[in-house]
């Protein structure tokens, strides 16, 4: 591929530490499509890794941000409140997965919000240690890289990282080195036994502030946590006075068909971390917990120059309203069924023998392969060549479907057609058929 002048300049002057699916320079986005500086139009099944849940440049969100830019762009939260921030809190509180979650801190990115959650957990419990799930992803900063267990890449060669982090088992057959057809009940039972053993052998409950996990593993393979596993963790936390913190950075704001993925299990979290889809592309994140938990932090201990930015808060308000006005969750349910049907139809074809597992909720779906050699990376490139953006994920051979939650039936059908053609091409090139 010949790079545009802009892409060549970017390749020369942006750090090589940024991994990229493509060398395209995107200049416009509308709905489910991105356009490059060379005029190429691409069907986007990544949504900016789960950020533009309402599609690129959603009109209502764009209008809200434009109007706010003409009123107030920056009101530093350690100096005073800003109007959009207060109105956003009014919109957020009713959609939280439990009524006890009523006190917020707004920041900029998912990694920052995870770090804020750790500070609050340690301060409110008086305990230092954090337990995370094997396969989890919580960020790339020094502290969040210490809590990330999806790949070693994020902390490799830059240690020592934040201490006091311990790993627990997650009931995912690949993660637990068990056969694909291992019953879920077995995976859950073994995982919970290992969590209890961890508390006996590695981090005592009196030293453990919280269990932090994604209710759907993101970078770890798009694997939903079984409800029984989440219920078991809730029981363990209650037994030992630990907090249960769910990282909904990628799974929140409608991505799984409910506003938050934890709602599928009906389990009460003590704290929720959110970001990505909340403002449909504007940088905003946050944590929420009970007032008693959050108020353990003394005044001045929380803050940030751009935290709770007025423009981002206005965009977030518009995003939440659009979910209601446009019945977005109904669209997610319909498209989820069509995506499953399309993938099941593909599995019935000869090339479908390469598909080991299809899993997920809503429009957060993972497809794992059982080819003689890994094919996910080649598959995403084959999709790119055919005009579609799709991402691989995890240390295992899997891809993730993250289309905009507003994707149409026709767009999803087109995406499935590209996926089929790309998979067949890769299978033939790799000698898998």
From TrEMBL:
GO terms for molecular function: 4-aminobutyrate:2-oxoglutarate transaminase activity; identical protein binding; pyridoxal phosphate binding. Its EC number is 2.6.1.19. It comes from the Eukaryota. Its cofactor is pyridoxal 5'-phosphate. The keyword 4Fe-4S does not apply. It is an enzyme of class 2 (transferase). SUPFAM superfamilies: PLP-dependent transferases. Keywords: Aminotransferase, Pyridoxal phosphate, Transferase. The keyword Transferase applies. Belongs to the class-III pyridoxal-phosphate-dependent aminotransferase family. This is 4-aminobutyrate--2-oxoglutarate transaminase. It comes from Malassezia caprae.
